[in-house]
Amino acid sequence: MIEVEVKAKISSFDEMRKELDNLGAIKVKTERQEDRYFNSPVRDFAQTDEALRIRETRSDENHNLFITYKGPKIDAKSKTREEVEMEIEDADKCSKIFENLGFNEVRTVIKDREYYKYENYEISLDNVHGLEPYMEIEISLEDNADYTEAQTSIFELFEKLGITDGFERTSYLELLEELDEKNN
User: Which residue, 133, 142, 179, 182, has most beta carbons within 10 Å?
Assistant: First the structure.
């Protein structure tokens, strides 16, 4: 699967909720996500622009666990990349397997995420612990699909929501790491 994703810094969650409501987007769910990121023993994912994580999601209705591999970004405008995800039953056992294979846990990123659905878009308002407010808009495509049209439509949707700047290709993990470097 190819994930076409664009995120932007926003000024206010309340303001964006109003814009999403005016657009006709439907709030689907709210959940807390705890992402444990790992680095490879044979290549530095920060250098190759890849990611391996264990994600734990919690909402009032559900508790889920996933491992996710994200490949390198394939363009210069968005976070379009291959994504492979699988549900798992035990995060600690999975972490132990990774560590026994030489993977190192790098950092945990925690965010409270509100999901909205609009047409074929998944929109999220992300309160990442330690960062300012962000919004992501995403479309998932088949591996061989042309992503450029989807990417253009995402930027057009941002514009409808009044967002024309503040776009960010850097992951939340990288943003937190950069913030740590600035503060040290």
Answer: 133
pLDDT tens profile 12-42: 999 999 999 999 999 999 999 999 999 999 9
Range of the domain at 61: 2-183
SS3 readout for the chain: CEEEEEEEECCCHHHHHHHHHHHCCEEEEEEEEEEEEEECCCCCHHHHCCEEEEEEEECCCCEEEEEEEECCCCCCCCCCEEEEEEECCCHHHHHHHHHHCCCEEEEEEEEEEEEEEECCEEEEEEEECCCCCEEEEEEEECCCCCCHHHHHHHHHHHHHCCCCCCEECCCHHHHHHHHHHHHC
- Active-site positions read 37
Has this prediction a pTM greater than 0.70?
yes
Identify residue 104 by its one-letter amino acid code: N
CATH number at residue 95: 2.40.320.10
